[in-house]
Amino acid sequence: MAMQNWKIKRMAVLAVVVLSAIIVSSKPIEVGVYAGTGPRSNGCVEWFRLVNASPDMNLTLLDGDAVRSGALDKIKLLVMPGGSSPAIKKDLQPEGTAKLKTFIRNGGGYIGTCAGCCLMMEESADVTRGISVMPYGRLGSKGKFMMPLAVNETGAKAMGIKPGEYKVRYSAGPVLYPTTNAIEGASFEVWGTFASDFDCPKSKLRMNGHAAIIGGRYGKGRVFAIACHPESFPVTHFMLKGAFRYVAGREVSFPPRHRAVRALSVGFYSPVICGTEVAKTVVALDNLKGVDLFPVAAQEIDSGMLDHIDWLVLPDGVDSRYSSLEGKKEFVDAFLSRGGRMAGWGAGAKYLPKDGKVCTSGADVVGFLEVEAAK
Q1: For domain 264-374, is the CATH number 3.40.50.2300?
Q2: 73-87, pLDDT tens digit by residue?
Q3: Which of 123, 143, 268, 308 is the most buried (most CB within 10 A)?
């Protein structure tokens, strides 16, 4: 009888342990997405809304001030989007970079795309970009195109995908090489390489065979760093799922985005994205009923993107980055002549036409477009 009671108690304990594990794994992951000075362009917009829309994650938007104030203590994993790694490092400041390294070393997860990949590089290889988490440097970068990446067996196993070649959006990301200096606590491997050179007239840099995906550990934490932008298109979101699978140790989902019936199409000018207010505006617009939000890069204006939207939002941000819009006057004029409208605030308001909607803040833009969508 005593033996039978012991078995019953043991089974009960095991059941509690299993149930607890299921409950823990079903809780959303606390994910921070960096939105301070540095991250910018379409990839940022996609990261903000992908994490926000996923039922498996809770989104926190962070900047340098938040990191220095201890915000990393409240999250499990940090996503660092593309943009400018020197600007990101400057925004973090030495105190912030130290806190970020401690966060990873103590078990925090990190996913970095493009500039977010550069930030992890060895500092002695490029003092303006790296914070010495992984022993890799940057040979350079070039061009914007769909780049085939060859994912090897090691990377495929870690990410839970098949090895092979996959085309991923590349936008002047780092071409990586291993350094010879040891970084304490760092254990990294190449998971994927560039599988083409895609010659760029402005550069003699050869890409084929160089590292494009790096994965591994820094202390107790796990890091996934990729030179490209798998967040940009749904067809490469499987790589993001693989990154979360490795870094967070669990599966995540990204619900498909469905176009709303008779929706208001809103383009958000993305090269100037800077700061958490702009990021919050992106998330709020993406959540609006009756609004379809599209990030718009400068080169996409040339490609006819404005033909497919009703409103173009020019956010506050880095004023000098608006120089890329000034050369698109003929396309913007054509957009306005067919009935397109523009709204903006802060730095963006300076570039609105005479009948453009000048707003006081990102929240003001959201409120205004919510009314427009309801008409």
Answers
A1: yes
A2: 999 999 999 999 999
A3: 268
